[in-house]
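Researcher: Hi, I'm a grad student and pretty new to this. My advisor asked me to get structures for two proteins we've been looking at. I'm not sure of the right format, so I'll just paste the first sequence and hope you can take it from there.
Model: That works fine. Here's the first sequence with its structure tokens right after it:
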Amino acid sequence: MFTKAFIPYRGYYSSPFVRWQGSISTVHSLPLAGATAKRWLAEKQWDPALFDYVNFGSTVAQPHIFYGGPWAAALIGAESVPGVWISQACSTSTTCIYQAAMALEIGSASTVFNLMADRTSNGPHTIWPNPNGPGGQVDMENWVMDNFNGDPWAGEPMIKTAEIVAAASGVTREECDAVALRRYEQYQDALADDRAFQKGYMFPLEVAVSRKKTLVIEADEGVYPTTAEGLASLQPVLPDGVHTYGAQTHPADGNAAVIVTTREKARELGGSGPEIQVLSYGFAREQKCFMAAAPVPAAQMALQRAGLEIKDMKAIKTHNPFAANDVYMSKKMGVDLMSFNNYGSPLVYGHPQGPTAARCVMELIEELVRLGGGYGLFTGCAAGDTGAALVVKVG
């Protein structure tokens, strides 16, 4: 359990998430994230010199990622601050926040800037040397698609792991369609009143199209209208499976940032806003090909470390790339399937890998603020049948 890690109120932002091969599919994600974060800090009138460390989280490599951490620090204006590159697939943001909280707990840092960014669009095609191949042969890898479609340890694509969990736990096609529709309806609540909920944490992207033209992206790009009839008309992705393309997430591009600091600095930066504390972190690895089940033991660990139970949570958010994730969690942890993931989830607005969990956490915080405070749980799966979770408290 953490005692020293706090997040300033509104000391976080997420860009809109942009559909795969959409408006930012050709833009290097790290410089875009650095520029976005620098604009956000300037708007907040926060000097980047206040940070003593930077965690840069990403999963899909792009040119010069070798310098990812210190490059990210320099781009936000913290030129004298060191940084580290953290990569843990879908739980990258969770790990960044966890590492920052650990730094606060042991006193090795006082204010950590966590910047997460990914571009799943136009992923790299990597050539690896094959020393045993005659004539200088090489091995080739499509960084994004080859890894989506095959875990080198478990041997199955990600969607197959969700189907395996669904079959083992009795999750049906009807349940998956119902949760997909419900998540879409919850996302619509975030768009009410001219997107009042999203505007609490979302910060626009600015992309230079030419010397004279800048593209400003203020809202998610790639969310498709969802109806019960439309979901019912779709064919399963895998033969005899319970997931259609309407009941799984879609790859996306975007960035996000979260500041983790001391209680005193959080109060200073957050003004009159509520106190937000990072209480605990949990992690798990399930048996082979059970990725969709991993959020449950991760959540149980985080709750146990915080000395809390699932019934104590006023709000719950999940990274749910497949509808079966939420159905399984509901069954195993005894929570109302339709009551969590209010205001949206990656199932609806997409999954850029690195920044996904961070957006979920800030939506969790914003929901708790609207509810007058309380405890909140984030949990989600990640590549390699793993899961990661965080418990936060909003005062």
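Researcher: Oh nice, that was easy. Here's the second one.
Model: And its structure:
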Amino acid sequence: MNLNGNEIYTLYPGTKPLLLSLPHVGTQIPPALLPRLTPRAAEVEDTDWHLEAVYVFAREMGASVIVPRHSRYLIDLNRPPENAPMYPGANNTELCPTRYFTGEPLYRAGQAPNDAEVAQRLARYWRPYHDALAAELARLKATHGHALLWDGHSIRSELPWLFDGQLPALNLGTANGCSCAPTLRSALMQVLAAQTAYSHVTDGRFKGGYITRHHGQPEQGVHAVQMEMCWHTYMPEEGPWQLDTQRVQRLQPLLRQLLQTMLRWSPHG
């Protein structure tokens, strides 16, 4: 496979109609920005840790993979460009986040980005990622007749500022069934229902962010889903954020089965 990379993202083009997007795995923060952030920001605690390693088998399956380099603290690639809240009525982090997932301020007093700076980050970091993602989906659709998008995420299982209680281990999001064909949604739900190792829900608290909702256009031949996994499925939920090999080995067969289900699915039944 050829590698397409730059300072914003790395794209590994695949041979199958599936694209794996991991928009929150980046950890880089421009050095000039760090003094405006609280010291805690340097730990980038709200990263979707280690998902490239967890999904390492995806490229072996022939899937395309796209990953960013920069932290979501710089800009959130899974938020809409107009910065509308993804979940009205609940606490949300913004296009350029100003709070940690625990609710405390991310920036020192008076240092949060203004509208002009947000627009600059949008043009420099957000747009190239989405342009590349859209172009790869278009390539896959032109090659295979349809394209599949798996948007991979992970999060701490308890974050009272964002949601009540404890999340199920696996959270499948399809924008309430709007981002993919009903038969694909059903096939993935059947895989989750057939196992007992992990709690799961479909279109619960996390229904899919901007990437799933925007790029998932089943009537146009592009079918997208989001998977939000709790950290504890593959690592401890406290620093230093290191992979647990045994947990990874337990989780990967189910993730592989889900991606295989995506690839076996056909829009023609």
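Researcher: Is there anything I should tell my advisor about the second?
Model: You could mention this: Residues 115-144 form the longest helix (30 residues).
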